[in-house]
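Subject: Protein record for review, amino acid sequence with backbone structure tokens
Concerning: The relation between a protein's sequence and the shape of its backbone.
How to read it: Take the token row as a discrete description of the fold.
Enclosed: The protein record, placed directly beneath this head.
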Amino acid sequence: MDANLVQQLSADSGCMRPIRLTPRLVLLACLCTFVLVSTSFFSLQARPPDAFEPQALSAAETIVDTDVSPPSLPPPPPPPSSPLTSLPQRIAPRISVVAIWEGSFPFPALVNFFASFRANAPTVELVWIGIRKDEQDACLDIGQYATLEHEDPSSNIVFRCLTRLEYWTAHREYFCRQWKCSAEERQEVLDVFMERNDMDRNKSLYRIWRGYIFRDFLHSETQWWGWADVDTFMGSFQSQFPWDVASDYDVIIPAHTDSMLYLRGHLGFIQTRAETEFRMNLYDNMRSMDGFIHRHKDAYWCAEEAEFSAFVIRTPSISFLTLPYHLVELGFDARSPATALFASPSGAYALSPSHSPPLPAFPDFPLLALPSAPSSFVPTFSAAGATHPVDLVTGVDRDKWVPAETTTFYEPPPADELGWAAGEEGEGEPVRIVGRGGGFEGGREGVWERFERARPELRVRVLGAADGEVRASLTEGLYIHWMEHKYEHRPTFDSIPARPLLPSEALAAYYTDGMEIWNIDRGELVWRSVLLD
């Protein structure tokens, strides 16, 4: 084409047609350009001092002449439902649980730790942070259980692999922002973190800040972050987490009834909001670089159950809520061959201690028709509940596993002294909920105790019963902690098949006697641990 030819948009046809430039057209074009530039210059000079200043154009931006009709645009991208769409967006969870692991595959039950989080999608996400020694080392490969975010943003299990240096650098970055470290101090803080790596084998010494340190790995809209031990199995968050009152508290402590108040190392939840983060940073030994270097070095190996518990429970500005029905665990007074725990994709259950008539012990324990779907949500507090203030007793040696100076107790008064009867026959003893905040009046330190009726037990069929009408009573909770099974009878615990439970299956555990996997739909025993003398 001739060099004097240019292309011009035709407003009526939308196509391109060539025209030839003449001297008159060239002169007219130059005059128009001068007028436009002059007008723009003087309008900018007349702009008031506080007017919005346009940003410089980036390389990806272009100037569009609005006096010319735009060219035809390409078709819009396909809608989200189209199979041509790129990967789906990561769904916002309400809770992000952060688990940290350094080392090899711990035990076969880890498979169902992941499966239990999968069953809680999209309400809860698990952020798994693997640690490797250096660039030549590798993190525990959990690819068959979790998916990298960039591969599948819809997954509720997020995997991150960090070297030790990267892991402790993240801690340095978080705390040095609080302490306003100089360049030299930043290096010193990192050196101290690295030197103390072996002191923190349980990844406990900074646990109450874990979600804030690794906030970039969490979904930006999550409301709660938590920690979890990997020897746990999650039940139904949908029905068991206190959604109706959770926003009133900084810390949620899932726990069994105990007069000692402390954070559980195996599971806990803290709000992501800035006010709660500010309160966590009031912990004295970590408020300054000096405190970190000279005082926090002597922290207990399970700090969340010791120092951090004393800090949270004794600090009046930190609100907390303990829920005794969350933990599905063997009570020390209920360990018998017939005591059974049940883990299924629908929830976490235990045979009720009040069950009658008694069922045969393992290996003759019958299969039960466990629920096939999560149960309905029950409000945390009822109109029948009664709250009263209590005072704390601190630093008392009562033969606990943590240093005596970190223990905090309350003295629970007998229910009948407060005019709280056990209720109708079959309702059992009242549930004792302890907390601070939430609009309830507390004692000297703001702590209160509340009596509530025990939650209704689940009545399920005993499969294979002669008359078909025999029922077993179950209690439901948020999670199971396999502590007794892991430590009291490790061979049985290690023999669990390393595969996720199917929707129709359940893992039944009978303290130290044995374990089984049932297929409830078929009423069949799928697997049983070796019978021991």
In short: DSSP finds eleven helices and 24 strands in the chain. Residues 1-88 have pLDDT under 50 and may be disordered.
